[in-house]
């Protein structure tokens, strides 16, 4: 392998929830599969499993397959933190990810670009990560995958270009034109950046509380 994962020591801090989005063929599954197989950082992100109303296919992600009825029942019971509908299937992310976050574990979700705005409303501290690839590389990957006709691929490429223009300003971006380890390193850099910012916020909060306590003590002494 011509590229190597950098040595990363993620700062220990309140856990973060990352929402990975991008078009089919951009390499989301490859990136998440890599994270499932290899421990690449001290504060390694857990990959949330998805609940989907379709069977598990060979070469597909290892999701939890549900019937439409089962999915609807779980949704009505409030068991999903996020859920959306796309390409004739329902997708859900379970409430259990909040337990993982409470346990100090960073979590990354395979999300949806169309659902991103709603996800941010549901969980304002969500950190969106937009994975992209050049048009020619994406076309090549879709052709190699062999699931669609030439015209369907071109239609998908056109839709992707339209979606790229709608990317929010608050998204981090990963470019995945080359090796998967390059994308992993970009993701780890994003995680580390957010952990560092979280540490600074914690330090500022401690300083604020300390200053308030000193002021209270002074007030009591003057009284």
Structure in words:
The strands form 2 sheets. The protein has a 5-stranded parallel beta sheet, with helices on both faces. It has a 4-stranded mixed beta sheet with strand order 4-3-6-5. It has one domain (17-222): P-loop containing nucleotide triphosphate hydrolases (Rossmann fold), CATH 3.40.50.300. A hairpin with a 2-residue loop joins β5 (80-86) and β6. With 223 residues, it is an alpha/beta fold. α1 (28-37) crosses α7 (180-222) and α5 (135-145) packs antiparallel against α6. It has helices at 28-37, 68-76, 96-102, 116-122, 135-145, 150-164, 180-222; strands at 17-21, 46-47, 50-52, 64-65, 80-86, 89-94, 107-110, 127-132, 172-175. The N and C termini lie far apart (70 Å). The mean pLDDT is 84.
The H-and-E topology, N to C, reads as: EHEEEHEEHEHEHHEH
Q: What would CATH call the homologous superfamily?
A: P-loop containing nucleotide triphosphate hydrolases
What would you call the shape? Answer: globular
What structural category characterises the helix and strand content? alpha/beta
Give the CATH level 1 class: Alpha Beta
CATH architecture: 3-Layer(aba) Sandwich
Q: What brief labels describe this structure?
A:
single chain, 223 residues, alpha/beta, Rossmann fold, five-stranded parallel β-sheet, 7 helices
Layout of secondary structure:
Blueprint: E1 17-21, H1 28-37, E2 46-47, E3 50-52, E4 64-65, H2 68-76, E5 80-86, E6 89-94, H3 96-102, E7 107-110, H4 116-122, E8 127-132, H5 135-145, H6 150-164, E9 172-175, H7 180-222
Parallel strand pairs: 1-7, 1-8, 2-7, 3-4, 8-9
Antiparallel strand pairs: 3-6, 5-6
Helix pairs in contact: 1-7, 5-6
